[in-house]
Each structure stands twice: as structure tokens, then as C-alpha cells.
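Moderator note: this is an archived Q&A kept for reference. The question asked for a predicted structure of one protein chain; the sequence and the answer are reproduced below.
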Amino acid sequence: MSGPVHPAWPARLHVVTGKGGTGKTTVAAALALALAAGGHRSLLVEVEGRQGIAQLFGTDPLPYEERTIAGTEDGGEVRALAVDSEQALLEYLDRFYRLGAAGRALRRVGAIDFTTTIAPGLRDVLLTGKVKEATTRIESGHRTYQAVVLDAPPTGRIGRFLNVTAETAKLAKVGPIKNQSEGVSALLRSPMTAVHAVTVLEEMPVQETRDTFAELTALGLPIGRIIINASRTPLLAGGRGPVSQPQLRRGLAAAGLPTDQQTVRGLHAEARERLAREQMEADLRAELAGLGRPTVELPLLVGGTDRTALETLAAVLRHAT
């Protein structure tokens, strides 16, 4: 069995969460690409039924099976899996109770959907159980995947999703469900796992990151990195105060640009707004730094998220220290 893929990303299972709109699926995909570099094989998993991975890589909707979706120039491979709770329950029934045909019959009458609806804790155990199986799978004496990246539920639900032992304690005291949940819980609380939080430099996502880390710490779950997405390089900072309109007019004149009052006022207002934005972002960076976790910043990309953009983000993640 080989060691970790990258010293900056030593875990086997990387759980990526974040407030909605911060780009967690994009970051998870880029991380899977980064961890596949060097001839490794990584698995990218989604559990929310949105088919976000397929959209990012421009493929058909993912089935409930592991499928290659990307490769790296040095021979690495990224596979993807969309875990469906219904399919996971059928697999569970067949594995532990040998109910293959009976399970399919249950599906036809809607019993599976009913079961996972009245017992949402069971749904999360099934989803995380599949992730655990892929993370720990051994083939020919070697791990099937050097790393597994889970595009997890958002920060508002991540604690409950990962705290499977407490949820299934309400469902079963003994038996396969309890055993499976305990096995998943052991993996999630081990050094093999790291929970990373994706944020942007805005007040609400940063606050949710703080709250999530506090919740994960209380649950005994291992916290990984803070990943600041869509980060912009400061343009006007540098210790100087705001530029006055006369200074701006002189600068425009020196550059041979229009110096009419409307132009000067418009540019001056934009500069003040930008300075205020950059000061707010600096304050939020300091707030995140106060959490004491390693941080990596990903640049703001214009023009949408395509394969080239994913490769750009993967390169930044791959060279994180």
C-alpha cells in the first residue's frame, strides 16, 4: 500500500463542504484532479443528486457506478460516482440480507423511497457507507484509490450528515445498520479523513465557516483546510490613503486620458468602493486566519468554469504548502 498522495493533503478521504454559492463542487472537482496528478487514481463522489460533476466535466449524467471522467498529463485518473440513496439501499439489502430480488420488488412499490424518507438518518448512513467502502477498498494488495474527494452537503447540514452514529442510534441498537454506522464513524473521525470548508470573502460564508468548524470540533470530526474561492488580488491597497479627485485628474492627464468632471467623479467613486471592498476582504482574511487552520486561496476565474479553469484551480491546490 502506498503513502499519501501529497504532503499538504495527507488524508485519504477529503470531505468538501461550504455554504451554497461558494463553489464547493468546483473546488472538489479541482481537488480530485490535483490529487490524481503524478499517476495516481482519485475518486470524486457526489451525494446530493444534482449531477454537478457531470455538468462540470461536460459528460452524460453519472450512473450509480464508478466511471472515469478525466485524466492527467502524467497518467493520473479521476473517476466519479453519483451515490443514489435508493441504489445504495438496494446494494445494502443484497449485501447484508441477500434480498436482491426482494429489494427490487420493494423499489417497484415505492417502499425504498418511503423508508429513506421516514428515516433520514438511514439515508446518510447509506451514502457515507458507500464512500467509506470506496475509501478503504483494496484490490490486489493496493488501495483502489489514493484519495477520495466527497462533494458533501453544504455547511448548514454537514454536521448531521457526518455524525452518522448519533443519527442511527435512533434507528437500531444492534445489527448491520449499527455496525455499518460505527465503521463509518470510525473512518470519519480518523486521520484518514479531513473536512475542508470552501468559502468566499463575504460575511455570511465566513461566519458559516466559523460556525461549521466549531460544530465539527464539538463532534470530534477532523478539520482540514480553509479554501478561499474566487479570491481577487488587491489593486488599490498598499498603505496609502484614498486618492483625491485632483490627484486622479492629474494622473489621467499624465496618461493622456479624459479629465472631464463626469469621468473623474465616476472613477473616484469606483475607487472608493473598491478600497472599501478590499478592506472588508482583508478583515475577513484576518478573521479566517484566527481559526488557526491552513488556508489556500483560489483565484477568481472569469469566463465560466470549464476544463481549463478546473486545471488552473487544480494546479494551485497541487502546489499548496
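Archived answer notes: The domain at 13-236+292-318 is CATH 3.40.50.300 (Rossmann fold).
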